[in-house]
Write a structure and sequence with these properties.
Four copies of one chain form a homotetramer. By secondary structure, chain A is of the alpha+beta class. Chain A has helices spanning 118-125, 132-145, 159-165, 170-183, 242-245; strands at residues 2-23, 33-42, 49-53, 58-80, 83-85, 147-148, 167-168, 188-195, 208-215, 218-222, 233-239, 248-251, 254-256, 260-265, 282-284. In chain A, strands 1, 2, 3, 4, 12, 13 and 14 form a seven-stranded antiparallel β-sheet that branches. In chain A, helix 1 crosses helix 4 (170-183), helix 2 (132-145) packs across helix 4 (170-183) and helix 3 (159-165) packs across helix 4. The first copy, chain A, is globular and about 55 Å long. The interface between B and D is medium-sized, with 13 and 13 residues.
């Protein structure tokens, strides 16, 4: 079990008469990721609205803020128990056997136009063994072909753009990997959170975007950007792509400062400290619960 | 109450060693759209898998079919009770008051890049009264600016393309209207089904794509293509856009013939026949149930 | 020397009150491609306007046609003397040494967005020897990765689309090869004409689009689609891409029938018949004349 | 006659082993724009290569520079004699009557996809009188619908993007106006240079991109961005779009500093000072010479 303690501070200046925010900054609370303590601080006197999406365990925080400055702080301690599997045991699930709720993650989305990449993906990955190693091959392909370059993309950049231009940031790596997985019928989703152990050469600790792929009976973690340690991911939100799972979606005229984030691995109640490390094992923070289907 | 009786026949030839299908051809079964009788016929001996998405009432039919010919027939009789409201009473719901499950329909999707249309939509529709009449203005704008032309678009065509090229089929009209609604923060979703009263000058009865917009406390019906009568819509599936709610998503090499569809309005148990007509009233087939939020 | 005799028949029905046409259906008349005989027939009584673009030797035919049917026929006999070079002797020309008139063929164009493909092309082809063999490697890459499929693209399809979707017709193969050449600073242009020896399995003889690349001191012939024999190309027009060199650009409402084209290799004045064949030699129909620069 | 004196200083740091540059920073030398004095300074000991494109009078400067710093300075004094016409006398030229060399400016290009905007442009501008006033209507439409915002676009941004997103810099305004003109069969081209009288609220004096449209017998000046005074334009290069006429096209790894530009209106040899002002007259700096056609 990994215990991570972190804090996030977001600073905005709202120029309009008021703005709405949808935040995904709460750690998802699941059997595999227990939120031991958490604290939310909002500088304006507001009634925050929380919405739990039971399908993904994402906790949406909605605020209707006034003009002026707004500071949102969140800090938590989470205990993450990873489900760890040998890669060789982990096969893909054929379409007819997928849980119904997983089907939408086969379909193209705003930033992951898997429909357009079908021939490409089949030629490149179609003949590989259909399991964890094929997903690794896709991850490695993305990591090899795309260069990480801060500020090289914008909110309009999609997987097709990244495939063509071969440059991007973590969210672009994630979008391209997701699109390629879906193009060969492997369900894949976008995840955001923060991570312990990020490569600080790329800048201060920031939110991170990564990928979860459905294999066997649950969602497994992948980091196509190669800048982080999957064992150190704290999951906040998941969705089809960044359109669903941005850490903040803002409606109205707002000036945002860069987030201030800190994270550390701490000892558990028995004084035992586990620090996230890279591993060859397949890791999941999904407990395999699925909504019952009819 | 409108009672509609219809049948659908789909013919495929599967060239590969086998193919997977996800169909959305079952009438959604809801308090407002009662499925009185229905019958599914599949020419191959297969075990069909049904999945009900409780959030949208969409019923997914999955088949893993063998090589050779496949015929899928579905026929049903449905009773549709429309919730009818005076347009002047129907306001938009501000972001902070939307049911949580409706939030995703504010976000951009594969074919509805509302993020890119924000300035356009605000300039064109930003100053209108925020209610049903604004949505009608968006619908009318789409209907006026886009020409209906069979085979003028393909599976890659998105709202941005349709805004630029001003030509398309019903699905393109729907995508553009949805993108424009979301761009001014009005939740909108894509619906597919069949419809009584389609303009037969445009070809034989076919599946139809239309739009549902969230106003007041529920989803209301709109037909941006102007080729159909909303009161005659039988809803099958809803989703973000056509990526979610295509009547058939096919995995594998398949030759498809055009669907054969017939529909008629019939008398109810008391011998009373209601034929769908155009109306100035706002119509919904949503009963306003929302999943409980936390 | 190859002597080719061919005829083209184009049939239109002009529904508007009249339409303008710009045709590129005349064989370019150059020292290497002598037009021995030619005949133009126009069914309407019109004064055709011919414009010779001296930079490319393209002969534009402009017609202002009346409503009703229009038939345009052109037949010619051309003697093509190929400049043939051993591939190993043929190097690329560095930017600073290119003839000034060749510079524009380094720049991106409507259908060849070489600017976007820079990183891709450098990674894939950047380390190869800079000469004919690198261009062959690009041609082969395109031929291997793209599938030929009639009607799989439209007038909006560009090199970026073809790179993503990996399917197209001869014009798409040409656009992608051109874009990749320019992306590694090799001047490349689009050529249209007809060809002796086309693969008839792909349909009746039609116009053909191919590529000319500037190497050494002139433009050399390449056929990325792999469906034709470069020695059998009759050049009509060249340009940046299909926007410049379409065989017909039509302004107004016109219904067009498929062109009817025939071509044969015939004996020269001495009774000697040379039939186009595939060759390992580098072939050019450019005589190396360049406009003087200042 | 307007006499303008200006200087340009460009600073680069070349990190690679050497880089090639193609500059368009020389004032075009034409009967209407006489270059009275000019001086080019290059900090490295290089042999600059000048190429004059006789079709457009653009003077290309090519440099093959070494690693290290490179400073390029250019200063000149030009006398501009404007051809001034009453707008009401200035009609469009029908396709069949256009000079042959003007035809390419009807075709779509990298950043001006006029083919896609045909229906839009015809609906919006198709019924206007076909002359100078229609071009003004297009210019005004662009100026009204697009917001000027520094750094809001990048080198991939095209007219289609600007039409959708309604934001850009002077080059984006120019691309959209050009695309809309071509979409209704009006030849339009991209021009770059510097300008006297730029709106300094938008930043220090910089290169400017504007539009020339072919009306009557020559090219007329338009400024869709609305940030400058056309009478104060010094023309450097013209082309299909920014792909042809960028002030600098750079091949290789180079760091560029912002250009330093100054410009002033000075008195002519008789002590007479004409300062550029806005005018209702149609202005051209084209002398109406056309290459002879065959």
């Amino acid at each position: 079990m990994v215990r991570l303690k972190f804090s996030i501070e977001l600073n905005y200046y709202i120029s309009a008469s008021g703005s709405d925010f949808v935040f995904n900054i709460h750690a998802a609370h699941t059997p595999q990721q227990l939120v031991k303590t958490e604290n939310l601080h909002i500088s304006q006197k507001l009634v925050p609205d929380m919405y739990l999406d039971s399908a993904t365990d994402t906790r949406f925080l909605r605020l209707k803020a006034f003009a002026g400055s707004l500071q949102v702080g969140y800090e938590a301690t989470v205990d993450i128990t990873h489900h760890s599997v040998s890669p060789t045991e982990l096969g893909e699930v054929w379409i007819s056997n997928l849980p119904g709720a997983v089907l939408p993650y086969l379909y193209p989305s705003r930033y992951c136009q898997s429909d357009r990449l079908h021939k490409f993906a089949v030629r490149e990955f179609g003949n590989l063994w259909q399991g964890y190693s094929r997903v690794l091959a896709i991850r490695d392909w993305v990591q090899t072909h795309v260069s990480f370059k801060p500020s090289s993309s914008n909110s309009n950049t999609s997987a097709v753009d990244t495939l063509i231009e071969e440059v991007g940031v973590c969210r672009d790596f994630a979008h391209l990997m997701i699109a390629l997985c879906r193009a060969v019928n492997i369900p894949a989703r976008f995840a955001t959170g923060i991570d312990y152990g990020a490569d600080l050469a790329l800048g201060p600790t920031d939110f991170h975007a990564y990928v979860e792929v459905f294999l066997g009976d649950r969602w497994f973690l992948f980091d196509p950007s190669g800048t982080a340690i999957p064992m150190g991911f704290v999951r906040f939100a998941t969705g089809r792509d960044a359109a669903d799972a941005a850490f903040a979606t803002i409606f109205g005229g707002v000036h945002a400062s860069p987030p201030v984030i800190s994270i550390e691995a701490i000892a558990d109640d028995h004084g035992h400290l586990v620090v996230p490390v890279h591993t060859k094992q397949a890791l999941s923070t999904d407990d395999g619960r699925r909504p019952a289907t009819t």
